[in-house]
Design goal:
Layout lengths: L7 H23 L20 E3 L5 E3 L3 H7 L39 H35 L3 H10 L11 E3 L1 H12 L10 H19 L3 H10 L7 E4 L3 E2 L8 E2 L5 E5 L3 E6 L5 E6 L5 E6 L6 E6 L3 E6 L4 E7 L3 E9 L6 E8 L3 E7 L10 E8 L3 E7 L4 E6 L2 E7 L12 E7 L4 E8 L19 E7 L3 E5 L2 H11 L16 E4 L5 E6 L5 E6 L4 E5 L5 E4 L6 E6 L5 E6 L3 E6 L5 E6 L30 E3 L6 E6 L15 E6 L4 E7 L21 E7 L5 E8 L14 H10 L2 E10 L4 E9 L3 E2 L4 E2 L2 E6 L6 E5 L3 E9 L1 E2 L2 E2 L9 E10 L3 H5 L11 E8 L5 E8 L7 E6 L5 E5 L9 E5 L2 E5 L2 E6 L4 E7 L15 E5 L4 E10 L5 H4 L5 E10 L2 E10 L3 E6 L6 E5 L3 E8 L13 H14 L20 H5 L11 H8 L10 H13 L8
Antiparallel strand pairs: 1-2, 3-13, 4-64, 5-64, 6-7, 7-8, 8-9, 10-11, 11-12, 12-13, 14-15, 15-16, 16-17, 18-19, 19-20, 20-21, 22-23, 23-24, 24-25, 26-27, 27-28, 28-29, 30-31, 31-32, 32-33, 34-35, 35-36, 36-37, 38-39, 39-40, 40-41, 42-43, 44-45, 45-46, 46-49, 47-48, 50-51, 51-52, 52-53, 54-55, ...
Length: 1131
């Protein structure tokens, strides 16, 4: 065979096998019964296997005669049966009565001979396979010794393979595992071009084994695998979560201070301090990050711990994993220092659980000569809040909730890890400790005449802050503890309290101290808390310096390595870097500041009947029509981790999905950023809450609704003995505002243009009513609201004028004011069925929802009244006249949650998903919603609905609260696990198109403006893009007999949607009517229409790639060009 590069030994063996096969075939042919079979040419009896190219491009040999008789005809790749030929000769055509030939074209054999031949060939193949495997192992060992030096280093970086690992620590390496998998999948001999033929034979043997096991041709197996994928269902895909809340750990400066490291639960992010831009992201995988620390020996390496008990060493510059170690414990704090002798990393880890441990780890890879070791230095039952290691591990400071432990190493001269033993001294505090920091004073910083009782390097100053806002400064804390220890009787253990140490007391903060740090020279203390003020304390003079009016409460403070910058983490998920001299912001990093719900705020497993699910109410969110990659949502001013309240949301934040970062924020209501946030009675002054947010159809206007209700504490003076009376008085003092904002393109802000006080109100009592929903008119600029007063109102802009002259503003534009265009009174179902029924129920609707049709001609209003006997009603209103055209009372909407219109269908989400055909006036779909762990009534504020007009789909998100498994970590936290399931539906199909499972509660769901998909914002402040990707696009070619049916269905849809436009308007979302059957197929080939290149360019070059219309619309536009009747040119 040409190009055969097999070894001589293998050639001789194969030649002997072929000779034996030839002899057996001749014997079988002479003993065959009957003479029906036509004579086969000698070329067909060649023993050289025929080559066949499979779908993967691998050269394969044809099967043996016995295999062909057992398995029948072999199918080629295109599904057609074929007779294999040897060499380049073709087989002789068979007669009509000839039996089926085998793959090699030989005559059929007897049963006995066939069995013997099959056993013999099987033994030969087995011998060949064993010999081949032996050659592979030898070649693999040979290649393994010749691997590059870099690969050996990576493999050794995570695996030690030694028996000296102590403390249950196990070393692993992702890179090594990856290399081993590659070696298993790709044989080493493939790298040698001279052994290509041997590899082909090995592939042939593997393919024959798969062929025998399946008992069907390989091409048929592949076809069946493809056929298993249902064509009607789309492959769902979701992007990785973007954003997330930064961990409550101090930010980490790089050694050069040009980069700042922050971590969310899913990734470690590296930002540039010069540009505030994200430069690198290290993904954590399925487990969540719990702690991270920079290497003390290699500046470009960082240790990352996660919830699965793993510590991973990353090269954050190259985004490469260096090593990985399995601890089997939950690491909460991590500090890295240099070993005093080997100058390698020592990692101090706090492992949390029922008992808290502080371990010292020497994590080593194969590039180190020493093994991985572990040593436990502290065990306590109190939760550890902070760990600080000083003087290369000589001193360790541990802070718990109400005590501080200071450990000093005993055997300083011994540097072996197993000799690390500490003497611990502890003192108690009366208040809960919220933050602490220690400072080591060097000998040149001490007074010369000061007499001390310990080594000069052991002079430690300690500062702690408590929940009452008091800062305690302990000077030379070790001397004070040693003095008290000596004054006590020998052998007696007496608790030491902080007051007995006579600390210096600093008190300015009204609430708990959020963070506290020493300056590099030890002369200043920097503190911050919920007051949004950073305080700099000068200890020698007692003076204070303030940096007020930060955007949120201060949670973490850290100084840069050189002491020239402060990194301040705020409670609105942002980090700002300030210069220490000018206190000017050099870096501003914004995270997603949407409402965050912690795991401890989930309902309890035991009893959740009194739990309020209103904290999961929907966050107002909208996609910018002019910037489809930007989403706008409401955000609180501050969300301190120490408070589990549901704060109001007076701000709006803009997040860019493409840039994966927040770009700006803006206040929509009055706020306490510059005003006092504390009342005379010491209670916080609450800000208004933004309830709704919507864009106009042109993207130039933004409408918001904010609401403020006095706190319940302000009505404690009313003592009528009736709680309902207090709530009624409180509701009468509600303030509600409808605001209209115009876009300021130059300054990238929204400017308030009009404000309407009390858009809905109770006339009888003169009180503001709640606005229950807000929607935008998709056909022209305008908005519709429905309120608790039982009215639906439509608002339109109007240019102001006087005596026919347009009033112009400062920029020369006409002054626009918004006013009420129309209001419609809504009646209940009982009022419709029984006109004499009291109208009291209509004054107190429980839930009301609005939905516009895509063309703006119809408006649906669904109302669920606060009445046990009223099932609710859905009104279909003519938006042009304001008349109610239809009142749907057949549906029970007492648990109404969402409402929408998609084409001719009305989507109602409540107890179930109902699709109502507005034209046929009937139900077409009804799907039950099953949400385990939550009641149907409690589920109302958690359901989400979004409609995508581009691909004509709608998405439903519903919650699931499941009980945690009985593990030691969940016994102390018996909370339910909340998650969401998002289903995407097509109103014309009863089954679900795709399903997305989100591990958190979805607080907002919206459809993308360009293309297919949805955007979800969850309770972890993460944004996900949910896509529904169909199978590869194939242009449909319907048969002629189905054309009339397609035309009839098309005409029906066009009539329903009032789409009478024709021609080349398909790009604007209007689908042109298909031509009739005669026009489409009756024209002859010579009468084809002429399509100019300019027409195609108009379709495909209508804008940038991200702004192109849907593929369906472009396809219909092309079909309109080629399927239209040719123009008749008059003679």
């Amino acid at each position: 065979m040409a190009g055969d590069t097999a070894t001589p030994k293998l050639k001789r063996k194969r030649h002997d096998v072929q000779a034996q096969r030839k002899k057996a075939k001749v014997q079988n042919a002479s003993s065959a019964v009957g003479q029906e079979t036509a004579a086969t040419p000698s070329t067909d009896l060649k023993t050289t296997p025929a080559k066949k190219v499979t779908a993967h491009g691998i050269v394969k040999t044809a099967g043996t005669p016995s295999q062909s008789q057992k398995k029948g005809k072999k199918h080629s790749k295109d599904g057609k049966s074929a007779v294999a030929r040897s060499g380049s000769e073709a087989a002789t055509p068979k007669t009509a009565h000839a039996p089926a030939a085998s793959f090699l074209g030989d005559a059929p054999t007897g049963d006995v001979a066939e069995k013997l031949e099959r056993k013999r060939l099987k033994a030969e193949r087995l011998a060949e396979h064993r010999e081949q495997r032996q050659q592979e192992r030898e070649q693999k060992q040979k290649n393994g010794k010749q691997q590059p030096e870099r690969r050996n280093r990576v493999v050794a970086s995570g695996i030690n393979g030694d028996a000296g690992v102590q403390g249950g620590t196990k070393a692993m390496s992702d890179d090594n595992l990856h290399d081993e998998q590659v070696d298993q999948k790709v044989p080493p001999d493939i790298r040698d071009p001279g052994d290509e033929k041997i590899n082909n034979i090995k592939r042939e043997q593997d393919d024959k084994k798969e062929f025998t096991a399946n008992a069907t041709p390989q091409t048929s197996v592949r076809t069946s695998r493809k056929g298993k994928q249902p064509k009607s269902k789309a492959r769902s895909s979701a992007s990785e979560p973007i954003g997330g809340w930064f961990l409550s750990q101090d930010p980490v400066f790089a050694s050069d201070e040009k980069h700042l490291m922050l971590a969310t639960s899913r990734s470690l992010q590296v930002y540039s301090t010069e540009t505030s831009l994200l430069e690198n992201t290290l993904q954590a995988g399925s487990a969540n990050i719990t702690a991270y620390a920079l290497s003390s020996t290699t500046p470009n390496r960082v240790y990352v711990a996660n919830t699965s008990g793993l510590i991973t060493l990353w090269d954050w510059v190259e985004s490469e994993k260096i090593g990985r170690w399995e601890l089997g414990a939950h690491t909460r704090h991590m500090v890295v220092i240099q070993h005093p002798e080997s100058r390698q990393d020592l990692v101090y880890c706090h492992e949390s659980g029922t008992t808290h441990f502080l371990n010292v780890l020497a994590l080593r890879t194969r590039e180190h000569s020493s093994p991985t070791e572990s040593k436990t230095i502290l065990e306590t039952n109190s939760p550890i809040n902070g760990v600080q290691v000083l003087l290369e591990g000589k001193l360790v400071v541990v802070a718990t909730s109400k005590s501080v432990l200071i450990g000093k190493r005993l055997k300083v001269q011994k540097t072996a890890l197993q000799d690390f033993e500490y003497r611990w001294r502890e003192f108690q505090t009366s208040q809960r400790i919220t933050t602490s920091d220690a400072y080591v004073r060097l000998p040149d910083q001490l007074e010369k005449d000061k007499q001390r009782q310990q080594d000069p390097k052991d002079y430690i100053d300690l500062a702690i802050g408590d929940q009452e806002g008091v800062i305690y400064v302990f000077e030379d804390i070790l001397s004070s503890l040693l003095t008290i220890e000596k004054s006590q009787k020998s052998g007696a253990e007496v608790e030491t309290f902080a007051d007995s140490l006579q600390p210096k007391r600093l008190h300015w903060h009204r609430e708990a101290v959020g963070s506290l740090k020493w300056s590099r020279d030890g002369n200043y203390l920097i503190s911050g808390g919920d007051e949004t003020v950073m305080v700099i304390w000068q200890l020698s003079t007692g003076k204070q310096q303030f940096l007020p009016h930060l955007t949120a409460a201060i949670e973490n403070l850290v100084l840069s390595p050189t002491g020239t910058s402060y990194a301040v983490s705020l409670a609105n998920n942002s980090v700002v870097v300030l210069s220490t001299t000018e206190l000017d912001a050099k870096t501003n990093i914004l995270g997603v500041n949407s409402r965050r719900i912690e795991f401890a705020q989930m309902p309890l497993e035991a009893d959740s009947s009194a739990y309020s699910y209103q904290r999961f109410s929907q966050i107002p969110m909208a996609v910018d029509p002019k910037n489809p990659m930007q989403v706008l949502y409401t955000a609180p001013s501050s969300q301190p981790r120490s408070q589990a309240l549901h704060p109001p949301e007076p701000y709006m934040q803009t997040f860019d999905i493409a840039a994966q970062g927040a770009v700006r924020g803006q206040a929509l209501t009055r706020n306490n950023a510059t005003d006092l946030n504390m009342g005379p009675d010491g209670r916080k002054i609450l800000e208004p809450n933004v309830e709704f947010l919507q864009f106009s159809e042109d993207g130039h206007w933004l409408a918001t609704v904010d609401e403020w209700t006095p706190p319940r504490a302000d009505f404690e003076y009313i003592d009528e003995g009736d709680l309902d009376f207090k709530e009624e008085e409180r509701a009468h003092r509600r303030e509600s505002h409808l605001k209209f904002w115009t876009r300021d393109v130059k300054n990238s802000q929204w400017v308030l243009e009009s404000r309407i006080n009390a858009p809905h109100f109770f006339t009888a009592v003169g009180a503001h009513a709640r606005v229950l929903d807000l929607v935008s008119d998709p056909s022209r600029v305008g908005f519709a609201t429905v309120g608790g007063d039982g009215f639906m109102r439509i608002w339109r802009p109007k240019t102001r004028g006087h005596d026919g002259v347009v009033l112009r503003g400062a920029k020369g534009d006409g002054v626009v004011s918004w006013s009420l265009e129309r209001e419609i009174a809504l009646s209940s179902s009982l009022d419709l069925l029984e006109p004499s029924h009291s109208e009291q129920a209509s004054l107190d609707p429980r839930v009301a929802r609005l939905a516009f049709s895509s063309d703006g001609s119809a408006l649906a209003v669904g109302v669920s009244w606060a009445s046990e006997v009223d099932d609710g009603v859905i009104h279909i209103i003519d938006a042009a006249t304001g008349h109610i055209r239809r009142s749907i009372t057949e549906l029970n909407v007492t648990t109404l949650s969402c409402l929408g219109i998609l084409g001719r269908h009305l989507i109602v989400v409540g107890h179930s998903i109902i699709v109502w055909d507005l034209v046929m006036d009937e139900i077409v779909q009804c799907t039950s919603l099953i949400s385990p762990g939550i009641d149907v009534w409690d589920r109302i504020p958690l359901l989400r609905l979004a409609i995508n007009e581009t691909d004509r789909t709608f998405a439903i998100a519903h919650p699931q609260f499941q009980t945690q498994q009985n593990t030691p970590s969940t016994k102390t936290r018996p909370f339910k696990k909340g998650s969401m399931v998002v289903h995407v539906y097509d109103p014309y199909q009863p089954e679900v198109l795709c399903t997305h499972k989100i591990p958190d509660i979805v607080l907002a769901l919206a459809a993308v403006k360009v293309g297919k998909g949805y955007i979800a914002l969850d309770s972890s402040s993460s944004i996900r893009v949910l896509n529904s990707q169909n199978a590869p696009l194939q242009l449909p070619t319907p048969p002629p007999e189905s054309t009339l049916a397609l035309k009839a269905e098309k005409d029906e849809r066009d009539e329903i949607e009032n789409d009478d436009e024709q021609g080349d308007n398909a790009l604007s979302g209007t689908l042109a009517v298909l031509p009739d059957d005669e026009a489409l197929f009756g024209a002859s080939e010579n009468d084809k229409p002429v399509v100019r290149p300019e027409q195609l360019q108009h379709i495909f070059d209508s804008g940038p790639s991200h702004a192109l219309p849907p593929v369906k619309d472009m396809f219909n536009a092309v079909v309109d060009l080629y399927a239209r009747k040719p123009k008749v040119v008059p003679a």
